[in-house]
Design goal:
- This protein has 3 domains: 75 residues; 126 residues, Aspartate Aminotransferase, domain 1 (Alpha-Beta Complex); 247 residues, Aspartate Aminotransferase, domain 2, CATH 3.40.640.
- Helix 12 links the parallel strand 9 and strand 10.
- Helix 7 packs antiparallel against helix 16.
- It is 43% helix and 18% strand.
- It starts with a helix and ends in an 11-residue tail after the last helix.
- Strands 4-12-11-10-9 form a 5-stranded mixed β-sheet, with helices on both faces. Strands 13-14-17-16 form a 4-stranded antiparallel β-sheet. A two-stranded parallel ribbon has the order 1-15.
- It binds pyridoxal-5'-phosphate.
Amino acid sequence: MSARDKAAFASLPSVDRVLRAAWAAPLIADRGRPQVTDAIRAVLVELRANGGAATLATAIDDSILRVRVTERLEAMTQPSPRPVFNLTGTVVHTNLGRSRLAESAAAVMAVAATRPSNLEFDLAEGVRGDRDGHVEALVCRLTGAEASTVVNNNAAAVLLVLNTLAQGREVPTSRGELIEIGGSFRMPEIMASAGCRLREIGTTNRVHLEDYDAAIGGETGVVMKVHTSNYAIVGFTSSVAEADIAKLCRTRGVPFVIDLGSGSLVDLVRYGLPHEPMPSEALAHGADLVTFSGDKLLGGPQAGIIVGRADLIKQVKRNPMKRALRVDKTTIAALSSTLALYEDPDRLPERLPVLRELLRPAAEVRAAAHRLRDGVAAAVQGVATVEVVDCESQIGSGALPTQTIASAGLAIRPVTDRGAGSVLNRIARAFRDLPVPVIGRTHEGALVFDFRCLDDEAAFAAQLSKLDISRAG
Ligand SMILES: *Cc1c(COP(=O)(O)O)cnc(C)c1O
């Protein structure tokens, strides 16, 4: 260590001394001594760890210390999770919070969160009510179901249905449908957790009605069909129509359950999008129970919705596990408000963010890319080039995995070939370090921003001046 470094280290003040600085007093009054102490300690540790002489020589300057500590405190008191710009091109992105709620649903949710409500109270009779009652009529009207119930998410819906109807029994399911969804949702494991024995039928690519017929016996709890929501098997394939399985199940006296995954409450074809299976269709085909998510294409809060035969829903609701998987008041509020929007399908695209984003014309997204190009180019000047490119957005969360939507954005490409990968990582990191982190995706050596889901161009552009590629490590 050079003499100058040593001198600089020696002049780094102690935590106590910084706490006594005049500028620290208002911070302590505002945030409390423990938090300010933590922030100061963290800044000093950082300076000792990273500081060459130059950093230290300036860092011990009181005003710089003050800026660093204040920044640190701000970072410590950020809400968590906090908003980001989703420029990944995946509209329903599980890691970025899936569907954005409609404004109206968020408002209703906030009221339910902050005030007492008739969540489980029958106002007409003055007696205890049922939380499912707030959404059941709407769900039934939109799906044609006799009854419904709501749980924490679709994984919980599948778990609860299987545990209720098939605990200790067999569940014949096609080998081609034993899906894994990101994280730890694997159909065979969910079945095991529900206390059921998976009975695999058919092969990966083909299953026939005879396979179902042969598998059903005295041990069968339910027959299960899973919508292969995040992949497609193409080529020499065959599966059995839902109506045919339903008919067989009825003859053999076993319930038929379909896990739709996403599902859609309206036929997306009316908006020019590809068709996504609908709960109403599955029920019309003769399924006894259908499960689907509240926060995929439906565009509501995280929830799992179970619809179907009233006698089976009654059984499901009596399962003690239902209590462990139930949704809270804010979810019920947001869900009922979101479902209400479906009563007017013509206005749904303006009101439901998921649909609005899916339907945004590529030309409009491209125009945004052209408007933002120069600002981004200036922010990465000398390090990367920026060009407007066509790209493909995905719906995400397993819906319509093989269908993409034409979109546009910016491709940010390092100017040098040497070490381009690490430069690209640094650029991506710098964008993630912005006050509202920007999340893109890397594709063929470029960082690509798909602007389909950007709804506040001004806010995006305004923070570009803060981009610091040199600091990002
Ligand atoms: C997404 C999905 C699930 C899990 O739903 P969550 O709401 O994420 O719990 C289950 N099954 C299928 C087919 C899915 O696509």
